[in-house]
Design goal:
The protein is α/β, with parallel strands linked by helices. It has ten helices and six strands; from the N terminus they run αβαβααααββαααββα. A six-stranded mixed sheet has the order 4-3-2-1-5-6, sandwiched between helices. The protein is globular.
């Protein structure tokens, strides 16, 4: 099943790339609001934190946020607490995730130790072999806890956002995900309901989370959804869209959008998964890439 869906994802990627063309767009009237559009990008998406910090640093008002996958996570962090430093906000989220991971590892380790001891004691083993078996059981139990778990990610998001609903956020927010159907993948807009469920659905990448169920799928394989400019304009028409793009490809969208689009490409080398920890040079490098790209765009007078 997973292999079939992965093939489908690649097919959608190719179709998406051919279905739209990239074009600049200009409003025939003054924009009514400014929306930030955040691309997919896995660990590269941490650059969105720096991009948002740069916009706030320069006093750019953000009236709405649309993001997919990693862009959904970062977008929700801003939309739920506008004005807060994004590095601090992300680190607070990751601390909760890391704490839950450690707690689960200890719990599974304890269970593994108990099972190992019980097995040896029932068989009449001596104390020393029993302790050794228990230690191995504990190690095995802890090792069975994946560092990146979609289920844990969803649970931590729910607690971090205190069960918030999208329609209650101080800044309007939206994200997208895909659902498999008998006719292929169907894109779904999440504009209301649980913030945690929406973000987790948009970030359900089976290549990142081993336990992703594939009932809802990261929309990033669709080239158009990778930087959801078109979707953002449909949800928030007559807007100025600041699209932060950390992918290797330019954004694709229709030429007749009723929105002013300003795309900022963030050029980055591969970002290791360790950057997700919110500390260290890999994380800081990703943050700086997004921050500096926005500052350059502002200084160059791109809008």
């Amino acid at each position: 099943m997973k292999r079939l869906l992965r093939v489908t994802l690649l097919a959608v990627l190719m179709v998406g790339a051919a279905s739209c063309r990239r074009s600049g767009s200009a409003l025939r009237h003054a924009p009514e609001r400014t929306c930030v559009v955040l691309s997919v990008g896995a660990a590269r998406g941490l650059a969105h934190l720096g991009a948002l910090d740069a916009l706030m640093e320069r006093g750019v008002r953000i009236d709405c946020v649309v993001g997919n996958s990693m862009g959904a996570l970062v977008g929700s962090l801003h939309a739920s607490a506008p004005g807060e430093d994004m590095r601090t906000r992300y680190r607070a989220f990751f601390r909760q995730y890391a704490h839950e991971t450690e707690h689960e590892a200890k719990k599974r380790g304890a269970v593994g130790a108990a099972v190992g001891l019980l097995a040896v004691l029932i068989s009449g083993g001596a104390l020393a072999p029993a302790l050794a078996a228990g230690a191995l059981g504990a190690a095995g139990g802890a090792a069975s806890v994946p560092e990146l778990s979609h289920e844990r990610f969803t649970q931590v998001l729910e607690r971090f956002h205190h069960g918030a609903r999208i329609e209650e956020l101080p800044v309007p927010f939206a994200t997208f995900y895909q659902e498999p159907t008998g006719e292929g993948l169907h894109r779904v807009a999440a504009t209301q309901g649980s913030v945690a469920e929406a973000v987790a659905s948009s970030a359900a990448n089976p290549f990142l989370f081993e336990d992703a169920t594939l009932q809802r799928i990261d929309p990033g394989a669709d080239r158009v959804s990778a930087v959801p400019v078109h979707d953002a304009c449909e949800l928030f028409p007559r807007s100025r869209l600041i699209a932060i793009n950390v992918t290797d490809e330019p954004a694709f969208y229709r030429s007749d959008l009723d929105c002013e689009v300003r795309e900022i490409r963030v050029d980055m080398t591969g970002t290791p998964v360790e950057a997700f920890q919110g500390a260290g040079e890999a994380f800081e490098s990703a943050w700086r890439a997004g921050h500096d790209a926005v500052i350059r765009a502002l200084d160059d007078g791109q809008w």
